[in-house]
Design goal:
about 160 residues, mainly alpha, 2 domains, two-stranded antiparallel sheet, two-stranded parallel sheet, 6 helices
Length: about 160
């Protein structure tokens, strides 16, 4: 699969793992491998797996990488056992982390903001901030090789999730 390049020493081959990784990810995307794996199992018994989403207020870091790898192993295992496992990415949108980010962004306390723009306006600010890091998360999780649906994600703030 990898193109090998002759090293300076005869008989030694150099392999570029980042190049192999990017080609593999491009192949998976161009051939819709994840989507095809879901389609192949669509009539199978479902296995439901909610992976405990990260907070929507920050960028992924090394602590998320291990957890995300583990969150990929379980759905893959059950898929290999013949189950249909819908793998939607999710976002934890409730509570103080969101409010803290809004207060910091606006330079005012929650109470001051609610008095100035009302509860509906404050809630709109909170909803808007959830989408701030989605592209960085998509890139990082994809680079891990994790198969998950970002286009039909769930957010804990959505009434249909609640």
């Amino acid at each position: 699969m990898a193109d090998s390049k002759q090293g300076k020493d005869a008989g030694h081959t150099q392999v570029s793992f980042p190049e192999i990784e990017l080609r593999t990810l491009a192949f998976w995307q161009s051939q819709a491998i994840f989507e095809r794996s879901l389609e192949a199992r669509k009539d199978s018994k479902p296995y439901v797996f909610y992976d405990g989403p990260p907070f929507a207020t920050g960028l992924p870091h090394h602590g998320h990488l291990l957890a995300s790898t583990l969150k990929d192993i379980i759905p893959r295992y059950f898929t290999m056992q013949g189950y249909y496992v819908e793998r939607r990415f999710g976002w934890d949108c409730h509570g103080l982390p969101i409010e803290y980010e809004i207060d910091k962004q606006e330079g005012q306390s929650t109470q001051e903001l609610v008095e100035r723009i009302g509860i509906a306006g404050y809630n709109d600010l909170c909803r808007a901030i959830v989408q701030r890091y989605t592209e960085q998360w998509r890139q990082t999780i994809t680079r891990l090789g994790r198969w998950v649906d970002f286009d039909h994600d769930y957010k804990t703030m959505d009434p249909d999730f609640m």
